[in-house]
Amino acid sequence: MNFPPDNQQSFFFYNGKTLPLNKFSVALTEGENIIYEVIRVKNSTPIFLNDHLNRFRYSAQIMGYNINLDEISHGIRELLKANPVDQRNFRLMYYSNENGATLLIYFIPSRYPTADEISTGVHLETLNAERHNPTVKFENKAIRAIANEILETHRCYEVLLVDHDSFITEGSRSNVFFIKDNELITAPDSKVLGGITRQKVIAICNTLKISVNFRCLGTNEIKQTIGCFITGTSPGVLPVKQIDNHIYQEIPEMVREISTHYENLVEQCIINWRAENEGGSNSK
Question: Which of 129, 132, 138 is nearest to 168 (CA)?
């Protein structure tokens, strides 16, 4: 199972009920045609929840699933009320088969960047692979398995997917931005899963008047870039120090500035959640 439950937590939500984790079954996670979201929780606040739910609804529409966002929102609130956390990710997933529908929300083991990784950047490796339908948050077990093997053997933080034309599209569980000629380069929306953090970064760039060029970078261009960072639920905005054998000598100030603005959005999200959910869940 690629996404086991976090055994340090006490509850999960399944088809309308908050249940103790000792009733969790691995079989619940092993359906076909699974759509999912991984959502970060900080101070018992689901970060950018509405954005994630809107993307989840889009994935459901593509798959022909009939979901109820009110039910899902209720389930998330009930889970956080029963199982408050300081910082953790939970997985929201749904699939349907001849046995009926499965709506499952549960905490997963979560790794966030260390202070050193944030300060000096992380190591990435490339992988020749591409998603069949990158715009849908659809579980691709084959790519995930290969990516996990590379992460382990190369001791790297993330894997960048390279398509059949040798263009970099996205990370196995992140989006990627490159800095070249004083602008950011990131793949067009049609080539990637539109990450929530990615969307926030693009909005930040518009505010800061930073030019964003929506195109895929060729692998032969990596050495021409002066910086790179990835975005995602757990990493946030995370600088890169190495891609394969190419090493960046420093982290551009542009990356630091974008990261600061992003973390400000996260803190504002927590403030808004508390204002809207008075008497709700509290952090440990």
Answer: 129
